[in-house]
Amino acid sequence: MKSIGDITLLTDNELVQEIVKTNDSHLFAILYDRHVAMVYNKCYGFASSKEEAQDLTHDVFIKLFVKLRTFKGTAKFSTWLYSFTYNFCVNYVTRNNYKKNEKNFEGEIPDSDEDDSSDASIFSMKSEMLKKALELIEPGEKMILLMKYQDDFSIKEISESLEIGESAVKMRLKRAKEKLINVYKNLN
Q1: Which of 169, 161, 12, 165 is nearest to 79 (CA)?
Q2: What pLDDT band is residue 59 in, cutting at 50, 70 and 90?
Q3: Of 119, 116, 138, which Cα lies nearest the Cα of 182?
């Protein structure tokens, strides 16, 4: 095993391999330090308070330590962790808000004949109203929109992160944008 000085120079993928081999919590702390800010920011997007985001971040890393050996190394670790965090948060929101969300989704969004799902429409929304609209759409739709517009992921990066085809990403983005725009319009 490498000395501590060399450990900090390891790539994330190499560090993960060492953690899986040794189950060393000190090595995991290095990985934690590298990625805690990104994980917290993603959790904060789903949380209703800073404290809840901190709790979610803590929970993500606990689950991550247990699931680390499932990382195959086919993608960058940061991409895999990003997806892992989003999936954890989506599951959390879905589990804790199922009844509330179900009520919001049933029959409240009228179908629109006009295709107003352009990126310009998303960018022109007022931030406070946009935040409210994001809370009213399904967590999976919110996730893909945040990946694209908040985190500037390319279609290819979203495809890799969610492990779906690029055409599926494009279709999900289109549907999520349409849903968001309709919900946003109904808030006015």
Answers
A1: 161
A2: very high
A3: 116
Nearest-angstrom CA–CA distance, 95 and 103: 14
- Are the CB atoms for 8 and 51 separated by under 8 Å? no
- Backbone phi, then psi, for 25, in 5-degree steps? -70, -25
Closest CA to 57 of 91, 32, 28: 32
Distance separating alpha carbons of residues 66 and 108, to the nearest angstrom: 40
Which residue, among 135, 140, 49, has the nearest Cα to 91 in the 3D structure? 140
Report the amino acid identity of residue 119.
D
Q: Exposure string (b/e) for 156-177, b if CB count within 10 Å is 16 or more?
A: ebbbbbbeeeeeebeebbeebb
| Average pLDDT of the chain to the nearest whole number | 79
Residue type, 146: L
Q: Which two tokens stand for residue 117?
A: 């799902």
Place of tokens 């109203």: 129
Instruction: pLDDT band for 107, please (50, 70, 90 cuts).
Output: very low
pTM exceeds 0.90 for this model: no
Intra-chain end-to-end CA distance of the chain, in Å: 60
CA separation for the pair 109, 115 (Å, rounded): 15
